[in-house]
Design a protein that fits this description.
Helix content is 29%, strand content 18%. The chain contains 3 helices and 4 strands. The radius of gyration is 14 Å and the shape is elongated. Strands 1-2-3-4 form a 4-stranded antiparallel β-sheet, with helices on one face. It is α+β, with helices and mostly antiparallel strands. The protein has one domain. The longest helix has 11 residues.
């Protein structure tokens, strides 16, 4: 897990709280009746990646796009 500021952690929690985040389930698993279990906040936070040349911002994949969370918690896609 990368180092994040408290403002970034609050922003990551706000993104996480927007709705349940389910892992990818293949069509074959769906046909077999297997459903994904929502991931936990810690698992979601572990998905944060460092950025280069963005002054400490982190990138986080959510809803098919990448969100950039600045050091002050400002979140944008």
């Amino acid at each position: 897990m990368i180092r994040t500021t408290q403002a970034q952690r609050r922003a990551i929690k706000r993104v996480y709280d927007r709705g349940p985040i389910l892992p990818y389930v293949t069509p074959r698993e769906q046909d077999a009746g297997i459903r994904g279990v929502p991931i936990t906040y810690r698992q979601f936070r572990r998905g944060a990646r460092p950025t280069f040349g963005c002054d400490g911002a982190v990138a986080l994949q959510w809803a098919g796009m990448w969100l950039c969370i600045e050091r002050d918690g400002y979140t944008h896609s």
